Amino acid sequence: MKKVVAGIDIGGTNTLFAWVGESGEILWSSSISTTAFTNVEALVSEVCNQLKCNLPGEPLGLGVGAPSANFYTGCIEHAPNLNWGDIVPLQQYFEDEMHLPTIVANDANAAAIGEHVYGVAKGMKDFIMVTLGTGLGSGFVANGELIYGHDGFAGELGHTIIEPNGRYCGCGRKGCLETYASATGMEQTAFEMRGEKFSSKEVAEIAVLGEKWALEVFDFTAKKLGLALANSVAITRPEAIILFGGLAKSKELLFVPTKKYMEENLLHNFQDKIPLLTSALPESDAAILGASALIWKTQL
Ligand SMILES: [Zn+2]
Questions:
Q1: Measured in angstroms, how far is the CA atom of residue 164 from the centroid of ligand 1?
Q2: Residue 298 Cα to ligand 1 middle (Å)
Q3: What 8-state DSSP symbol labels residue 151?
Q4: What is the C-alpha to C-alpha distance for residues 146 and 219, in angstroms, rounded to an integer?
Q5: What spacing in Å lies between the alpha carbon of 158 and ligand 1's midpoint?
Q6: Alpha helices (runs of H) in the chain, residue ranges in sequence order
Q7: Could you report the per-residue pLDDT of 120-169, keeping only the tens digit for each?
Q8: Helix, strand, coil fractions of the chain, as percent rounded to 5
Q9: Is the distance from CB of 259 to CB of 276 less than 8 angstroms?
Q10: CA of 290 to the centre of ligand 1 (A)
Q11: CB-based burial of residue 6 (10 Å sphere; 0-12 exposed, 13-18 middle, 19+ buried)?
């Protein structure tokens, strides 16, 4: 019988879940609205019922990616966008329903493991994954292992301070990288330059036409991101850095200047040695693939 694992991605808006085969093939998938459930146990129960009814092989376990989820404790801890209380014992809920080994990790860390198991980082022992979305998430793999740190929350590149006394961040401090290098950060930059609101998608569309101010928004974003990446390289010396997410797709607009600023700021013996890559995983499936990879990685 074919061995399968479940990949579950709990987002602020939707929860996606699937049965996934060993080479990352999605055998069955579904999604439900996260916000439709005020009670997390009811959400877990619905996900598990659907998974049980559509099991395509012999299940090995469940991987779950969720914001602010802690690999060590199996809990979602103080997630700002989910209204389920301070500590949610997610791993326990899934194990009680499915009676299968369950691994929980934060969404950016799950994305890094997905890239490691199925994507462009296959075979790499050292790389940095940066997910550019509403915020900036990251996962650091060093010596072949994801760095979870002492309490499970290592790898918060988005909350390194890149501008002392800079923009207010959702974490309560000022000047975090995420407030500059993310869709929200770019929108803030555009607003500061133009005095009116643009979405990051609109800024990209205008920049493609060669409009100077929109290109400057990208250049400013890339300057902050490139500097932060250069600093990260000095700590873990990755073989490559992988950018993922909507913003990462605007290849010439963001990639080229980010690479330039990273190179300018790199320690000399690291220069021209660290490629910036885009994710090899389809964006729509990357989160559930990343979650399922949490289990496949234990089988390697
Ligand atoms: Zn912050």
A1: 12
A2: 32
A3: T
A4: 30
A5: 7
A6: 40-53, 90-98, 107-118, 183-194, 200-208, 212-236, 256-265, 283-299
A7: 999 999 999 999 988 999 999 999 999 999 999 899 999 999 999 999 99
A8: 40, 25, 35
A9: yes
A10: 24
A11: buried
* pLDDT tens profile 191-222: 999 999 999 999 999 999 999 999 999 999 99
Q: Phi, psi at residue 276, to the nearest 5°?
A: -95, 125
Q: What is the DSSP string of 21-61?
A: -TTS-EEEEEEEESTT-SSHHHHHHHHHHHHHHT--SEEEE
Tell me whether strands 26-33 and 14-20 are parallel, antiparallel or unpaired: antiparallel
Go through the domains of the chain in sequence order and give each one's CATH number: 3-112+283-299 (3.30.420.40), 124-278 (3.30.420.40)
How much is the pTM? Answer: 0.92
